[in-house]
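Thread: Newbie trying to understand structure tokens

Hi all, I'm a second-year student working on a class project, and my supervisor (Dr. K.) asked me to get a predicted structure for one chain before our next meeting. I've only ever worked with sequences, so writing a 3D structure as a token string is new to me. If someone could post the tokens and maybe explain what I'm looking at, I'd be very grateful. Here's the chain:
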Amino acid sequence: MTKASFHWRLPAAFLLVIAAASTAYAQSAPEPPKLDTGDTAWLLMSTALVIMMTAPGLALFYGGLVRRINFLSTLMHSVFALCLISVAWVLWGYTLSFGTDVAGLTGGLNFLFFRGVGQEGAPLAATIPHLLFAMYQGAFAVITVALISGAYAERIRFPAYILFSLLWLTIVYAPLAHWVWGGGWIQQFGALDFAGGTVVHISSGVSALVAALIIGKRYNYPRQVFPPHNLGMTVIGAALLWFGWFGFNVGSALAANGLAALAFATTHSAAAAGGLGWIAVEWIHRGKPTVLGVVSGVVAGLVAITPGAGFVTVPSALIMGLGGGAICYLGVNWLKPRFGYDDALDVFGVHGLGGTWGALATGIFSAKAVNPAGDDGLLHGNASQLTEQIAGVLGAAGLAAIATAAILYALKAVMDLRPSKDDELMGLDLSVHGEDAYSYLASSGAGMMHRSGHGDEG
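---
Reply by user tm_fold:
Sure, no problem. This is what the structure looks like when written as tokens:
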């Protein structure tokens, strides 16, 4: 071999080695995740299920619990929220929740008006379209705003309801969603919330309590009893909520996989246990099990498992659901009468207390063995997880309480929050919306009222 031939072949061999190494690396390097049709199909269904939870689910659940003179106005709170918050979410809600992190406190404006939110993989879930992820999260925002309306049902002016809902979405929900899911300080601290125990339930429950205190009690409460006007409708609403909750919790896996299966099992088990827990305490306390009690317990169990649905085992979910039913029963039937506040449809008693119990129980029962993205809880030797959960609860409750009070006092300074006494006693269906859900009863009941000398007082 000549010296010239050697000098030519050495660099050629070197290049061949580099090329071979590059090819081997390219073959072994993982490909970036692609959109997955199974994941996308499941999240499309989950989004529809969560939308259904608000209307007709929550609308019928709440509507059956109020007096018939306020049935339509109560439905309106849920149906209108579906319209109002959906639009606000596209315009500014999503970007404040999931935009680029700003100091751990809020999202930036890079997704304002859904700019840059397209059919490509979502930043937090690469196997589903970004648009779908955004719409799914928007359905959560809708039902959270609608949940609060149960506290001031039968006694709020519709303009005040609209402005409160928009301000609450902007000042409470969006920042809190960012804190917990969008890279904010609660997520950085390590608190776990699989599907909204803090973001949805603690925030709505605490805000509901504050709203009930500031707006005030219904006329004649508690001297007059305000029983539900249609429990059958409430049961149908509860069934729709139970069904829709699979989209709420199971969809939060953001994929059709084993984690979704775990969330399905824990969600259903906790719901069933919640119904049993409520009934057990009610039966002991009141001597009779009620239909309203069992559906309330089911909802309490669903609330309790929401933060831990993808972080705990199924046996742990049974304990969380059972505890949720019992705790929420005591919140509704002992705590509220003791302090005398008028949370009309027990939003704080069920969602506030149930969400708090669920968030803390997640810190007790979470197991990294079932979800490596989570962490072990107190029961598995990690006491710090419970500390992190406490911080998340306090952060969510503090923001909700302070901001809700500020919003309502600001609105109260410039407008009336409540209708007149006459309008409220007439019922908001007629006085605010000019409609009567049971007009046939009103027309046929006129003669009965005249003959008997008394009628339905609400």
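A couple of things are worth pointing out once you decode it. The beta strands are 101-102, 106-107, 121-122, 125-129. Residues 297 and 335 are 16 Å apart (CA to CA). Feel free to ask follow-ups in this thread.
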